[in-house]
Amino acid sequence: MADTKKIAILPGDGIGPEVIAEAVKVLKKTEELFGYKFETESNLFGGIAIDEKGTPLPQETLEMCKRADAVLLGAVGGPKWDNNPKELRPETGLLGIRKALGLFSNIRPAVIFDCLKEASTLKPEVLEGTDLIVVRELTGGIYFGEKFRRDTDNGQEAVDTCVYNVKEVERIVHQAFQIARTRRKKLCSVDKANVLETSRLWRETVNRIAPEYPDVELEHVLVDNCAMQLLRRPSSFDVIVTENMFGDILSDEAAMLTGSIGMLSSASLGEGSFGLYEPVHGSAPDIAGQGIANPIATILSVALMFKLSFNYQEAGDVIENAVKNVLDAGHRTGDIAVDKSKAIGTTAMGDLIVAAMKR
Ligand code: IPM
Ligand code: MG
């Protein structure tokens, strides 16, 4: 009998609660199939927490996450809060939870699902074989550097500072090398070392660490060039490691290569096995409450949680195979359907996946 895993659930805003409900069904089915025990606790986070508690990340929610073995997040944000001051924005909660939980590494796989190739804006022959992971530094850089405004003779001036220390670079780079080792053993480190001092420190650090991983092939690519190469030769990338802001931009680009952002999961990790898992897509306020959102990215986030935080490899495979089988059988939610009139809803998709889960 396995020990009980505590999962903190943050449904969040928009379609968040709808997709989370399907992921919870998958947790229940996994308990039945494998005899695992999951104890779930849910709390307010994001816009809904602003509305009900006056802050996007209530202390109670943070405490719940700290008690857990892993966190499953739906999505946060929406137009309702877009014009709020910084402290009252859902994004501030997201940055706050990453920092408070020490989640310095964000892992976003971009995989082409064969049966969905037609959903991409890129030519199938360019995409063929694309299977890459962006490893993004998540708690440093310009996101967390000092920010302020001051008056000058030319009017107000705004300052964002980008800061990285060696330790912050080392820990993410080690993690990326280790991930590359489990895959095709290629690491692409992305920076802007021709211009930025933080990037020069980044590159020096990567080069100093590289000899510890002689089996991994390393390349350095400047960020502007990387943005271009991702469109030109996506299948040649295996693991991409980069700083916070570059990773934010490149991971969106990589996600869109697949044409199916509703399918992509992500993990944010710290030093141990603890992690926060969430779909790459946002809260999609335009379709919230209609029961048509694609729950697959959230369901695949559960698979990622099983593999990376709990070491439940087989259970993770069972979920991934169930998703594959349901897609192969032709079932589609509206976002990935070619014939929109045949699209199924969120609950129907969740039920089909649960039914397809077999050991
Ligand atoms: C992401 C998002 C966030 C980020 C925003 C919502 C603050 O774009 O998770 O990639 O920039 O990190
Ligand atoms: Mg982003």
UniProtKB/TrEMBL annotation:
Instruction: Specify the superkingdom.
Output: Bacteria
Q: Identify which cofactors the protein needs according to its UniProt entry.
A: Mg(2+); Mn(2+)
Q: Does the keyword Oxidoreductase apply?
A: yes
**Has the keyword Manganese been applied to this entry?**
yes
Where is this chain's protein located in or outside the cell?
A: Cytoplasm
- Residue stretches making up the Isopropylmalate dehydrogenase-like domain: 6-353
Q: Which residues bind substrate?
A: 98, 108, 136, 224
- Pathway(s) the chain acts in: Amino-acid biosynthesis; L-leucine biosynthesis; L-leucine from 3-methyl-2-oxobutanoate: step 3/4
Q: Which residues bind NAD(+)?
A: 78-91, 282-294
Describe how the cofactor binds. Binds 1 Mg(2+) or Mn(2+) ion per subunit.
Return the GO cellular component terms, semicolon-separated.
cytosol
- Tell me which SUPFAM superfamilies the record gives: Isocitrate/Isopropylmalate dehydrogenase-like
Assigned EC number: 1.1.1.85
User: Where exactly is the site Important for catalysis?
Assistant: 143, 192
Give the UniProt keywords, A-Z: Amino-acid biosynthesis, Branched-chain amino acid biosynthesis, Cytoplasm, Leucine biosynthesis, Magnesium, Manganese, Metal-binding, NAD, Oxidoreductase
GO molecular-function terms, A-Z: 3-isopropylmalate dehydrogenase activity; magnesium ion binding; NAD binding
Q: Catalysed reaction(s)?
A: (2R,3S)-3-isopropylmalate + NAD(+) = 4-methyl-2-oxopentanoate + CO2 + NADH
Its top-level enzyme class, in one word, is oxidoreductase
Q: Where does Mg(2+) bind?
A: 224, 248, 252
Belongs to which family? Belongs to the isocitrate and isopropylmalate dehydrogenases family. LeuB type 1 subfamily.
Give the protein's function: Catalyzes the oxidation of 3-carboxy-2-hydroxy-4-methylpentanoate (3-isopropylmalate) to 3-carboxy-4-methyl-2-oxopentanoate. The product decarboxylates to 4-methyl-2 oxopentanoate.
**Tell me, how does this one assemble?**
Homodimer.
Instruction: Give the HAMAP family listed for this entry.
Output: LeuB_type1 (MF_01033)
The name this protein goes by in its record: 3-isopropylmalate dehydrogenase
